[in-house]
Design goal:
three-stranded antiparallel sheet, two-stranded antiparallel ribbon, 11 helices, alpha+beta, 252 residues, 13% strand
Length: 252
């Protein structure tokens, strides 16, 4: 029951949020003041993004879930990076490589104490954390590039979660291979998984409780699946393209 789960999950998670339609910040009454300060710093970044970026067109582009997740990682990653710096004024703790391992462990441990999150499916948990954790690391990397004074939006927007997870792929302009269905019966739904969701799929197939934080590139090139109604129930046809034969063999 996805809707019921998400309502309970966000009710457990959210201490405040910025609503771009009314340009209003909402904070939960009685929340810890330090937590609200962190949330306020985060959400004020979203308010500024809303002044300079077409957030509606970015966040309502549903043609590719993977591309949308990458865009969310840019927006949430920038806000997360700013909020971390607000809590450590005068020193950039995010510049230390060891910070990110500790931060990931801290966030995951904190989330693990929340019963709805802890019992949610792995895909839901990873989808919730990815834009904040991996997005913040990507935006930290972006700050070290010659384009640091701009934002990776418009034509600079990352095209895949692979580019978020592995910024060197972004720097190398490694674009997803476009796939499309050209025949066959009518599909009830189609989309791609992308590297982030394939990592979740791999963890589930291995029976792991979590997705490893340290993984090299999968060698993902692109993918597309279609959902079909059949007499026996819904069926999925999935095509995946890999950068080379060893990457495809490794996944198989």
């Amino acid at each position: 029951q996805l809707e019921h789960l998400l309502v309970n999950l966000y009710g457990e998670q959210v201490a405040g949020f910025y609503d771009p339609d009314s340009t209003t910040f909402f904070g939960v009454a009685g929340a810890d003041p330090i937590e609200l300060r962190l949330v306020l710093a985060h959400e004020m970044v979203h308010a500024l993004q809303g002044q300079y970026l077409p957030l509606d067109s970015i966040l309502h582009d549903i043609h590719s879930n993977d591309r949308l997740t990458a865009a969310q990682a840019v927006l949430e990653g920038q806000a997360t990076l700013v909020s971390i710096r607000v809590l450590s004024p005068g020193r950039d703790v995010t510049a230390r490589p060891e910070f990110w391992d500790a931060y990931r462990q801290q966030v995951r441990a904190q989330q693990g104490t929340m019963p709805v999150f802890a019992n949610a499916p792995l895909l839901i948990r990873e989808t919730l954390l990815f834009p904040y954790l991996d997005g913040a690391e990507f935006m930290r990397w972006w700050g070290t590039t010659p384009l640091a004074d701009s934002l990776p939006t418009g034509r600079l927007m990352p095209a895949s979660t692979e580019q978020i997870l592995h910024p060197e792929r972004y720097a190398a302009h490694d674009q997803p291979v476009p796939l499309r269905f050209i025949s066959g019966p009518r599909r009830t739904y189609q989309d791609g998984l992308g590297e982030m969701e394939i990592r979740v799929l791999e963890a589930q197939l291995r029976g792991d409780a979590d997705v490893p934080d340290t993984m090299g590139p999968l060698g993902w090139g692109g993918d597309l699946y279609g959902v079909y109604d059949t007499p026996a129930g819904p069926a999925i046809v999935w095509y995946a393209v890999w950068d080379d034969a060893p990457s495809a063999d490794r996944f198989a």
